Amino acid sequence: MLTRGAFIVIEGLDRSGKSTQAAVLKERLAGEGVQVELMKFPDRTTSIGQMIDAYLRSSIELDDHVVHLLYSANRWELATRILDLLASGTTVVCDRYAFSGIAFSASKIKTSNRVLPYAWCRAPDAGLPAPDVTLFFDIAPSAARARGGYGEERYEREDMQGRVMQAYARLGAEMEAERPGSWVRVDAGQSVENVTKEVWDLVSPLTRGIEGEVGKLWVGE
User: Fold this and answer.
1) What is the mean pLDDT of residues 27-39?
2) 158 pLDDT band (50/70/90 cuts)?
3) Domain count within the chain
4) In which domain, by residue range, is 12 found?
5) Between 201 and 107, whose confidence is greater?
6) What is the β-pairing status of strands 210-211 and 3-4?
7) What is the SS3 string spanning 121-190?
8) Where is the Thymidylate kinase-like domain (predicted)?
9) Which end of the chain has fewer CB atoms within 10 angstroms, the N or the C?
10) CB 60 within 8 A of CB 54
11) Model confidence at 111: pLDDT above 50
């Protein structure tokens, strides 16, 4: 059976260190001779991504339903590229993915108590390529708030981040029930060096390639 690249996603609260570790992981993989590409969602370089960027910076206002569907569309417009890279033997490291979109949208609370149902939030991403492993960077919202740059974007409020953490717990439980070992907690409160080591220990076995086709998220439910 032919091997393909591994699909690795890093998730977590804002300021949990995801982007730093994703960049470090890419460099480490490249240094080990592994073909690798780093992606980040939302991808703010596309036309859809530019609308999302303006929303996150509070430059424009959009209905929550529209925002959520834009996030999903941003992932779908790159889904074929992800599959092509994996098929070519390239490992894809992804800084945020569908889980972020669901967790953040389902965690919004309106003054009118109108919320986006969890099932509705998950539905547009059904069928997207499924990660081989998702590394969830676990850190208390209060600890994330203490890090530099917190509060610069729309969702960086401690109360919001607390609700997001609960949504991530639900997503993680579902993923583990469906594919054990596909959702792994990483203690993001440790030193940068220790997080780097833990991530590499988890990822290095995947560098030899993955056998079998890429799965799909939430198909058949």
Assistant:
1) 97
2) low
3) 1
4) 3-209
5) 201
6) antiparallel
7) HHHHHCCCECCCEEEEEECCHHHHHCCCCCCCCCCCCHHHHHHHHHHHHHHHHHHHHHCCCCEEEEECCC
8) 10-199
9) N
10) yes
11) no
